[in-house]
Amino acid sequence: MDIVYRLGGATARQVRDEMPEPPHPAAVRTLLRILEGKGHLRHVADGAAFRYLPTTPRTVAQRTAMRHLLSTFFGGSRAAAVAALLDDEERPLSPTERNELAAVVKKLRAEGR
Question: Residue 4 pLDDT > 90, yes or no?
């Protein structure tokens, strides 16, 4: 899905070409058909191939995925999810990231959220 969103739509060959360790071409086509069957993609004819396009804007898909992640792994707690992200010793926050987070918290407090 990330590749299709990044390219704005893609054929199976384009998706495979973008993968760091691509599986067999038939596996990519199968995955795209499964994603289409689940309603995440649609296709249009592009010559002899199909061009796959996302059915929802990336921002909507991100929110849906985040809700699922929160409910599945963090009991619905946004605070627990953020704490897990911030407690990553392998990749500590950069000063820029800390400043960005502080600005978001300050804005939310000012808005009373």
Answer: yes
